[in-house]
Amino acid sequence: MSQRKANHRFCAGRFVIASILSVLIFVSLSSTAPAANQVDFYVPLIDDTLRVGTATSIDVYLENDYILYGMSLGFKIWSPDVAYWRWVDIGGLGATTQCVELIGSSRLGDGSPFNMTGFLVTEYDVDETSPDLIMCGGVGTDGGGLQTGPLEHMYSMHFNPMAVGWPTVRTICIDSVFVPPNGAFVFVDYGGSANAPVTLWPNGGKCYPVGWCRCSPPIWDPDLPTEMTINYGETGSVILSATDMEGSDIIFGDLVLSGGSGVATLDDYGDGTCEISYTPVIDDVGNAITISVKTGDAHHPFEVMYPYVIDVTVEHNPLSLDCGGGYANGATNNQITKTDITVPAEPPFEGLVYSLISGQGEVDPETGEYSWTPGPTDIGLFAVVIGVTDGVYSAQCGFQIEVVDEACCPGDVNFTGDVNVGDAVSLLNYIFKGGPAPRVMNWADANADCSVNVGDVVYLIGYVFRSGPAPQLGCYY
């Protein structure tokens, strides 16, 4: 059964209340309307006892097998032994207490002809010591009435049992009551015929003992942190603890996240401690986030305890971009690449997009790899600036590119500016060990046979150690 609640305020004048109730009260009961309608109520309690200081509700259930165009249900709250209570103002229906709450998902709730304009609450002498009478009812509006349906939770009346003499036993009773001449609940059909519905509760209502709580509520550790700061991309956690004066087992639950879009988790370790963890998302940065958790024991359910609240601050580590080596080099008509442009891995930034801020060439937007093939006139030093963003923060880095003429330096495999044994070693590593490729393949094709292979290594060794022919500008393809 859904318990979703929708509170509605009644703002009509007393003349409206009086006129509607008079229609219900003085309608004749001598007609032949069917009498299969039912009324029942339920008070959710622990061990069937009202506990001092614990908010309680009287949940009213209705069943009707024909459409109701009018009804009036009267309830009396009283004590035979001078107990007393406080009505809980939930901002609901009622001129004084506003303690009556319509259940939005019920037939009386959202969209009902009785809702707001037709369903009225009248209070008589609600001084919380003598019998308090709360009348709930009304007439159908806009040509409709209360649709038929099974026994269903329609509305609740909220009150709080208060302190009484101890150890004398006190009781609070709930009964049906109505003003003469009817003396009972009234249901009215479309034709104006009325009947008293069948009631499922005992004659004379029901009385409940009022008792003190048998144990002290759990107590939070006074030294617990109230704030938690988390860097985006990380998970933050805090350990909470509570004790019970009588030694009952502490339980944690009802974790509620407010203001955040990340994932909050609760681990109850079963020893009076629990761990609250939170993993934020990028949208959490700068938001006001709270996580609350309640505690209880066998005699104190979560709903009667105050929650412990943690304020969460999500920070974003500065986004930085590393261009690796501060330069790159190559020759005209040859592709120059730079693959060491990176964002630090911690924390793991998401949704990164790279771009070329200034300079020649292009950048892969997903990987950040830079590439450029300079033309015949692109000789000299060139500045390049690369940017990256995660949609919230941005960073940049820069480097220089040295470009020489393609015809400059045949045989300079390792791009050092001269030809020596290091070039032969670099070429061997490339051919046999998968080492880095020569920056200018035409320079590595020392024997100009249009292929880079071991023959070029032999050619370079002959040139360096045996005064062989000088390396040629190759034609590698």
What's the β-strand tally?
29
Count, helices: 4
Number of domain units = 4
CATH class annotation of the largest domain = Mainly Beta
- Amount of beta strand: 35-45%
Give the overall form.
elongated
Terminal CA distance reads 77 Å
Determine the fraction of residues in helical runs and give it as a percent range. under 10%
Average residue-wise pLDDT: 82
Under the CATH scheme, which architecture of the largest domain would be assigned?
A: Sandwich
- Pick out the low-confidence regions: 1-34
Look at the helices and sheets and give the structural class. Answer: mainly beta
At the fold tier of CATH, the topology name of the largest domain is: Immunoglobulin-like
Specify the biggest β-sheet: 8 strands, mixed
Query: Over all CA atoms, what is the radius of gyration?
Result: 41 Å
Give structural notes.
A hairpin with a 4-residue loop joins strand 28 and strand 29. This protein has 477 residues and is mainly β. It is 9% helix and 36% strand. The two termini are 77 Å apart. The chain has four helices and 29 strands. The protein folds into four domains: 198 residues, Immunoglobulin-like; 90 residues, Immunoglobulins (Immunoglobulin-like, Sandwich); 78 residues, Immunoglobulins (Immunoglobulin-like, Sandwich); 68 residues, Type 1 dockerin domain, CATH 1.10.1330. The N terminus is likely disordered. The strands form six sheets. Strands 2, 4, 7, 8, 10, 11, 12 and 14 form an eight-stranded mixed sheet that branches.
